TrEMBL record:
Record's protein name: Tat pathway signal sequence protein
Pfam family, one: Indigoidine_A
GO molecular function: hydrolase activity, acting on glycosyl bonds; metal ion binding; pseudouridylate synthase activity
GO CC aspect terms: cytoplasm
UniProt keyword Cell division present: no
Stored InterPro entries: Indigdn_synthA-like (IPR022830), PsuG (IPR007342)
Species of origin: human gut metagenome
Hydrolase in keyword set: yes
Keywords from the named record: Glycosidase, Hydrolase, Lyase, Manganese, Metal-binding
Length: 72
């Protein structure tokens, strides 16, 4: 932002930043979750852990459709 460039953050990192800034609620399109094939790769989004541990409310449409929604 300070450099005038584009950037992006994950929901997990946005939650941490929001908590540090005193922001209690933010909105996003979708959260991460358990990826397909995670029983072999253990590819699980940090968003899930952060949702469990950070006191920030996330408003979203749900988990991203590319994920294994049942496992998520």
């Amino acid at each position: 932002v300070a450099a005038g460039k584009n950037g992006a953050t994950t929901v997990a990192s946005t939650m941490i930043i929001a908590a540090l800034a005193g922001i209690k609620v933010f909105a996003t399109g979708g959260i991460g979750g358990v990826h397909r094939g995670a029983e072999h790769t253990f590819d699980i989004s940090a968003d899930l852990q952060e949702l469990a541990n950070t006191n920030v409310t996330v408003v979203c449409a749900g988990a991203k459709s590319i994920l294994d929604l049942g496992l998520t």
